[in-house]
């Protein structure tokens, strides 16, 4: 079994756990997480703060050709921080996010990228990036993308559902309930005492639920996902409203099902058994804090894994932390950026023209 498959499994497990959660009363951990996904549907507006910190990243390879480039990238990414602060409201649909990127090491740099999204348009502020010199007259302008026009130019019909946050939450809800239903509550979920959860100041929680994967259960977790959960997830995605939203065709879904069914089970089983030979999970858990109003107020995830391929001798160590905090849930929101004015925007055609005229 190759490392790409193992990375895919870990990514899928991470995606499964990083969900909006909340419950109506203190319940068994698994039940709390299952009912939580439904409660997330009631979030019609909120403020959010997210952060990803790469604590450690090491990659060693027998391929000496790419060693220098790999080391340079790792140097940039070690202790790198990505933050996302934002505001969302359902009606009228408006979202604004400011993504902060802070790279450290020998090529340290920091910059922010504000973004605004409405039902049909996306605005992205063009930042000043030291390694990417841009014409002065485009820096700090908002690149406006009319998604309906772009779809027409590509000869396709604009699908507003692709930006429907409510429908996306609904899809997530169905998928998460299916996933949680397949996993044993005693093996993968547990309560954490609120006082021991290291919640930041201002987070008021009545229950903290942890989903966790260890060396002891990772093989079983992967088998459950591939053999039990994935077929059911494909059935959910195959529903007309979700398939169209995701831009998939019936043929795409049928092919995915066929590929899944035709997978050599002996080969898959051997691959999963081989996990123990090169995958070590030092820590992999996600804590979800649920407030007294039955909404998710805070999440933190810790991922610390090592992969050592005995055949290729390629090794990787990844340690990262993620946090996600919600506030002012279903309250009146204040947008700091707002919809950019006409004098503040630039179209894609204008940007391309300015870039073409620029001399460096």
Automatic annotation (TrEMBL):
Keyword Signal present in the record's keywords: the answer is: yes
Q: What is this protein called?
A: Lipoprotein
Name the keywords, alphabetized: Signal
Taxonomic source organism = Paenibacillus dendrobii
Top-level division of the source organism's lineage: Bacteria
User: Which N-terminal stretch is annotated as signal sequence?
Assistant: 1-21
